[in-house]
Amino acid sequence: MPINIPDGIPALDVLERENIFCMRSSEAKHQDIRPIRVLLLNLMPKKIETEIHLLRMLSNSPLQVNVEFLRISERPSKHTPIEHMENFYKSFSQITEDKYDGMIITGAPLGQIEFNDVSFWKEMTEVLDWTITNVTSVMFLCWAVQAAMYHLYQVNKVLLPKKISGVYPHQLRNRLSPIARGFDDRFDAPHSRYAEVPSDKIAEIENLDLIADSELAGAYLWAHEDGRHLFVTGHSEYEPDCLRNEYQRDLEAGLDPEIPENYFPNNDPENEPIVNWKSHGTLLFNNWLNYYVYQLTPFDSSKIGEMRKDRAPSTDK
């Protein structure tokens, strides 16, 4: 939330240079406030589990957030009851005329598959194009990062020699980014993926700002300069057992996975993992809701996207 301070106070200039949102008293008298509308496109197989993880993160904000759920594939989910999907999820055709303040697009277990071979890729590209005029800010997570960078910015993912799995240290590259407000210079975050978006490719795109990365896990956090896109390659929303469950699942599938790095004390799966990423995750989601959604979205939701129609990334291949 913004701080409301007197008009003309000298601290105002200093705080604004640091990207701290200050509202002059004269502006606060005329401020309109409404609930934030957020759309969640859940591409994960275990949809209820993912819903819980993300709703926990969104619930930490003092803002009122109204959450809706979207599906783009009509195929029955193997891990989620049909009744749940019918009761709580909307199809894309049901929301194409709607406007949203924020949107989260999750990862998916598709990192080793070419985008054009993904069964719902056509629908995915339609959604990505739709967000430009219908959503103020989109947070992309894990595989969704790779999909958005490929379709919207023409940067393809690079397959890694082995799966990145574990909790990795990261360095803050841009302390003045609104998304990084309150971050320590070094912080930890979980990763679980087979591919990456190379940092040098991100640096080539003028409007993208690399905010944090890892020597071991690569680019972690970057954003479009106007807040329309936030890319998060890791999983700060993960609960304590998520990486362990993935490791055990891969063991049972005969994939011979490596033990998640920096996760189990003494690298022993018999030990309980130590959670050291939740405070950073809470800041990440709160900052997105505050700086990229609440502060940027118009009070009149019908005007969402109007200023960005002429500045949309090219999708020509």
CATH-derived topology = Rossmann fold
DSSP, total strands: 12
- End-to-end distance: 40 Å
What CATH architecture would you give?
Answer: 3-Layer(aba) Sandwich
Please mark out the parts with pLDDT under 50 across 5 or more consecutive residues, or reply none.
Answer: none
Strand order of the largest sheet: 5-4-3-6-7-12-11-10-8-9
What is the overall silhouette? globular
Mean pLDDT: 89
Q: Structural class of the secondary structure composition? A: alpha/beta
Rg of Cα set: 20 Å
Q: Tell me the name of the CATH homologous superfamily.
A: Class I glutamine amidotransferase (GATase) domain
Following the backbone from N to C, one meets helices and strands in this order, namely EHEHEHEHEHEHEHEEHEEEHH
Number of helices: 10
> CATH top level?
Alpha Beta
Helix fraction by DSSP (H/I, runs of at least 4): 25-40%
- Taken as a percent bin, the fraction of beta residues is 15-25%
Q: How many domains, as an integer?
A: 1
Largest sheet: 10 strands, mixed
Please specify the SSE layout and strand pairing.
Elements: E1 3-5, H1 11-17, E2 22-24, H2 25-28, E3 36-41, H3 47-58, E4 65-71, H4 82-88, E5 89-91, H5 92-95, E6 100-105, H6 121-134, E7 135-141, H7 143-153, E8 158-172, E9 186-196, H8 199-203, E10 208-214, E11 218-224, E12 229-232, H9 242-252, H10 278-294
Parallel strand pairs: 1-2, 3-4, 3-6, 4-5, 6-7, 7-12
Antiparallel strand pairs: 8-9, 8-10, 10-11, 11-12
